[in-house]
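Students often ask why inverse folding is considered easier than folding. One informal answer: many sequences map to the same fold, so there is more than one right answer. In these notes we will look at a single instance of the problem. The structure comes first.
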């Protein structure tokens, strides 16, 4: 796929930027052309009455929608009211929140990337999930048609151990130590430490921060496929990294999905990821 990914007007990224990857349920009738039309037509407006009696229109819409070959990108914009206490009075402020997104085919699946630029008021995790749910309602006319994806812990383990010198930080979860939920190791040479081997024997890798050496950037990635950019880069380069380096890893873990009543789908690893990791240069 040679389509160039535009930067949605954000240009160079200088702050920490998280993104989350979702998957569109393939059993639904879905085409890029229908997606573009439905996103273009989307406009939702509600009225909000403030404590002072003022009526404020709150709008949700898709801005700067573009189709480039088989890739669709845009910015999901929504208004909301922030309530704050000021000298024992409630101050209500209308705020517009924007989240760039991409719809990208890979192999026989369609993936959605949603970014949460620094400064979003409702929380980066909440806005990415909100946009995924909103896009599901717009594109598929139903809830939970766009679901979370999950990397196998073994994939993150192989990612780290294939080049330990590139790893900066590792978080472990699902530990069998009583009353311990997460543990962290930081520093180079983690694969050679006794603590790394011990934590691995008692838990799973949840989050790895590492340098993508062939791109010159530092990113963090969780099993829930939340990828955080820690380097000075462009949004275009960040999305290209996700598309070219992360999507192939998802193919190692994901199997065809059936409709479920939650947005959390857990998949077991079907094959060793070592060869794929070497191919994408991680």
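Output (designed amino acids):
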């Amino acid at each position: 796929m040679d389509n160039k990914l535009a930067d949605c007007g954000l240009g160079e990224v200088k702050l920490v930027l998280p993104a989350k990857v979702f998957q569109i349920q393939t059993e639904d009738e879905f085409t890029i052309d229908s997606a573009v039309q439905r996103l273009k037509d989307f406009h939702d407006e509600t009225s909000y009455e403030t404590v002072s009696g003022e009526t404020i229109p709150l709008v949700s819409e898709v801005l700067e929608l573009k189709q480039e070959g088989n890739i669709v990108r845009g910015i999901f914009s929504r208004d909301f009211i922030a309530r704050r206490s000021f000298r024992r009075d409630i101050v209500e402020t209308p705020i517009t929140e924007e989240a760039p997104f991409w719809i990208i085919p890979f192999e026989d699946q369609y993936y959605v990337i949603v970014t949460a630029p620094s400064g979003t008021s409702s929380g980066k995790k909440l806005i990415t999930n909100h946009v995924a749910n909103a896009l599901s309602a717009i594109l598929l006319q139903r809830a939970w048609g766009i679901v979370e994806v999950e990397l196998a812990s073994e994939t993150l383990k192989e990612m780290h151990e294939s080049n330990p010198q590139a790893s900066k930080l590792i978080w472990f979860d699902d530990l069998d130590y009583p009353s311990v939920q997460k543990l962290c190791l930081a520093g180079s040479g983690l694969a050679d430490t006794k603590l790394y081997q011990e934590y691995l024997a008692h838990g799973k890798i949840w989050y790895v921060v590492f340098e993508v050496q062939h791109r010159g950037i530092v990113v963090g990635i969780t099993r829930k496929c939340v990828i955080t950019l820690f380097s000075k880069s462009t949004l275009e380069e960040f999305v290209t990294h996700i598309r070219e380096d992360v999507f192939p890893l998802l193919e190692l873990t994901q199997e065809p999905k059936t409709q479920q009543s939650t947005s959390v789908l857990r998949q077991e690893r079907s094959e060793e990821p070592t060869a794929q990791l070497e191919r994408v240069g991680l």
